[in-house]
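HUMAN: I'm a chemist; might I ask for a sequence paired with its structure tokens?

ASSISTANT:
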Amino acid sequence: MKIRIVIPFVLCIVMTIGSAGAVWGNAIFGPSGYSTITGSKAGMLASLDEAAALLYEAAYTNNRQAGFLRLQQFNNIAKKASATGAGTPAGWAAINESVAHIERALVNGEAGSGWLMASSRIKLSTDALVRPEHALWLQYESVLLHDWTRVQQSWKRTTEDGALAASAAMDSLNEHLNRIEVAASMQYGNSAVDEALIRAKYTGLLLDGITYAGANGERVDRSLEALRSKLVQLFDEGRETADMPVVAPTATTNPISWALFLGTIICAVLTYTGWRKYQRSPYGTKPLH
């Protein structure tokens, strides 16, 4: 009778130890076998995103001393993160350009407003690396389409200052488009964002009458429609790419640990059941009826 208690009890202990080992092993080394202390790919990109947030905060608060420190910290992490294979070469090249811009601004003693745009571009790009399916830059679609509507409405004015008002509205659209340029390039390359930037520049030149002084109203109308199409295409491509994360999500379950855990429960139940039976009938005798 005792063997019915001993065997499940021993198995329960063995599976409990195995289950604990599997859990602690995953906690220390992670699913890919890398220690979280040295930093996995996802952990390194999360650190990069945090460094970008601190850099943006320094720019927003116009803290040049903190800006030097945060830029150095970000640059050190970015050199390692770029070697993980995350993102795109075009995105990392754009980040390097923004870093160089901030460095020049800090050396020249510019106020935070002089490197705030570059800092925001970096922050949006690191966010796209860490959270591609919910990237903040994708929320700029409504903003840019609103800018485009303002440009079109200004252009359609019956007054003589229609082109001037539309050109002023284009400044806001260009600012927002430049802000998300690095993030869009980081997530899926720079082809779509480059097309949108080129179309926006062409439309602006038409409205300003600098290069295309003889441009008529129909040419501006066609360029505006083409610009809207490029903006929609930009965010459509971003949403499609968001379904394929740049950083593989960290595994949260382990089939071996689950099997050991369930086995532990089953053995514990069998041990308890056997013990209860032994308590009622310690010598295996049955009452006579």
